[in-house]
Design brief:
Layout lengths: L5 H17 L4 H21 L2 H24 L5 H21 L7 H23 L12 H13 L3 H40 L1
Length: 198
């Protein structure tokens, strides 16, 4: 859902990315900082500092927004960087969602949140590996999950936050799968029509 608004805020993030790049900060530095911040968020959740964790999740999300902007500002965007960024995102998601299970010992919902979140990312990755684009424009991607997680921590409503993440993520899995199948069908129809006209 927020993916559609990315272009509206890209000017702000690009400006911040350029300023940070001029200070000598590199995109991979920011990605590693975000990973360590997520690990620290897991620790604060484990220790029960729930509201502090909410602010840490927001900070981690901010770093995730600007690492790409810094890469573009320094002309250092690469397949390796994109790969590592995606891997770090999955690790960060797992750490934060696992950590949310500790304060209330709600490990079942925590496990389901991790599973559903990974499935959302997997469906998009698999579709794109098959040449199908556009599945990212869906109900709840990573930005939405992190906002829900942050708000759940800030309001100390972790059980509700995990439930919403699980519910919206599984709906998104279905939505993205349907979108991918539809686009595959249209792609197949276009190929068939092209072949019949040749």
């Amino acid at each position: 859902m927020l993916e559609r608004a990315r272009s509206r805020v890209s000017g702000i993030t690009e400006s911040i990315g350029l300023k940070l790049a001029n200070l000598g900060l590199r995109a991979d530095h920011v990605s590693v900082m975000g990973l360590f911040l997520s690990a620290f968020t897991f620790y604060t959740l484990y220790k029960g500092y729930v509201r502090v964790s909410g602010f840490l999740i927001l900070a981690s999300g901010f770093l995730d927004m600007i690492d790409g902007a810094i890469a573009r500002a320094t002309n250092s965007a690469s397949e390796k960087g994109s790969f590592l960024d995606s891997v770090f995102d999955r690790v960060s998601d797992g750490l934060i969602l696992l950590g949310m299970g500790f304060p209330g010992e709600d490990f079942l919902m925590s496990a389901l949140a991790i599973h559903s979140s990974m499935m959302v990312s997997y469906v998009r990755a698999k579709a794109e590996s098959l040449g199908v684009k556009g599945t990212e424009f869906s109900l709840a991607g990573r930005p939405e999950r992190m906002i829900i997680a942050s708000l759940a921590c800030l309001t100390d409503r972790l059980e509700l936050g995990l439930f919403l993440i699980v519910l919206l993520s599984y709906i998104t899995v279905g939505e993205r799968s349907y979108s991918a199948f539809t686009r595959m069908k249209l792609k197949g129809s276009a190929k068939g029509e092209k072949a019949s006209n040749s």
